[in-house]
Every structure is written in C-alpha cells, then in structure tokens.
Amino acid sequence: MVFAPGTTTDIEWVAAEATVPSIRSRAAKLFLRRLRKDARCPIHRGSEGNAMLTKNTGRTAKALALTLALGLGASGAAYAKNPMVGGAPMYAQKTIVENAVNSKDHTTLVAAVKAAGLVDTLNGPGPFTVFAPTNAAFAKLPPGTVESLVQPQNKAALTKILTYHVVPGVYTAKDLMALAMKGGGQGQINTVEGEPLGITVQGKKVYVTDVKGNTATVTIPNVMQSNGVIHVVNAVLMP
User: Fold this and answer.
1) What does pTM read for this prediction?
2) How far apart are CA 22 and CA 24, in angstroms?
3) What residues does each domain of the chain span?
4) What are phi and psi of 153, to 5 degrees?
5) Rounded to whole angstroms, what are the CA distances from 77 to 48, 58, 149, 220?
6) Does the structure show a pLDDT above 90 at 23?
7) Which CATH number fits domain 84-233: 2.30.180.10, 1.10.10.10, 3.30.1300.10, 2.60.120.200?
C-alpha cells in the first residue's frame, strides 16, 4: 500500500491535520485520516489506469481535507471545543460549576457562588447562560465589597447580584448579536434575578450593560457547558 508518484504525501496530510484547530479536533482529524487512508490504494506495475486513479484520488482527498481544515478554522473561534479559561480547559460535558472551579481567573466567583448556596442550582440541568466576571472584575469593586457580600448576613444581596448574571436558556454570542441587531443595535435579555441586561454589539464584540449603566465586555464567548454556556466578562454587573 503506497502513494502513487505525485500524490499527497504523509507530510502534507499531517500539515492538513495540523490546520484543524482544537475546536472539533477529534471528529475533524478522524475524517482527515479517513480521507488519507482512502487516498491509498494498490498500484500494480504496468497498470497506468490504476496509477492515474490513485493519483487523482490522492489529489481530491487532499483538496477536501484542506477545505475542511480551512472551513473549521474559520468557524472555530466561535465554538471552540475545550477552550482554555483561567489556564484550564473547559469541557462541554461538564456543568457550569464543574468547569468554573478549575479556572484560576474565577476563584472569587466560585467562592461567591458557594457562599450564596447556588452550587446545586448551577450544577442542575438548566440550561443557563452565565456572564462570568473574572477575579480582576471583582477587584474593580470598592474595597471591602466582596468580603462583605460573602458574609452570611449578606446572602440575599449576594444572591441578587449573582442571579443577575444568569439568564434562563442558552444564548450564544451569535444569539446575543442577533438580539441586539433585532433591536436596532440594542437588545434586552431577562435574568434569573428579574431585572434585564442590555446587549449591544460593536464589530465582533458583545457588550452587556446593567440597569445602573455599567458595561462589561464579553472577553471569552461561547464556553459551552453540559447545562448551558458561559461568557467571560470583565466587569461585575449590578442590579
């Protein structure tokens, strides 16, 4: 089993596979390897027809593989498989809480979720869309705010703030953009807390504005979860 002269080489196939981003790596690379395997067929000496067939098959398979790789590369940024957040991979088969606890950028958020008693809720079936502020976002709050909110006597206030970051259902960045465009550039989305969040779009960026007029930027969109989706934001939203 060899390649005919002029057909796709192993190095070219590896290069094609390497262009497939991690987003859909398993399915895409298995497909590429299947094409690679199918491009190989026996060549009988003296059989010009078989050699030509193998040569054409190899070239066609290479073209299909590269097309697939480029296509996935174009769409992959929006729906990355196991994207890195806070130095840890986020797994689509895990829940919001199961993933969040592994992000070094969300230790404050996780501590707040635990203090508010929302772990079971965010581990539940949902689905939920969560705008997840980073540690740096919480650090922008007035000194002592976080330390005060996680105290047992302030559980109700903390719960109100956290549930203001949670929306029932799954809204990807594409959905949020469509919502904003439908409203002429501005849209609204209702939170679990009860008050709305404003959604605006500039270029490819999604912005979320609270009822007090504070705006957060979605810095990492579409972190898919088994029970919803997380959008990392750079500010804490206040109801």
Assistant:
1) 0.68
2) 6
3) 10-75, 84-233
4) -70, -15
5) 45, 29, 35, 10
6) no
7) 2.30.180.10
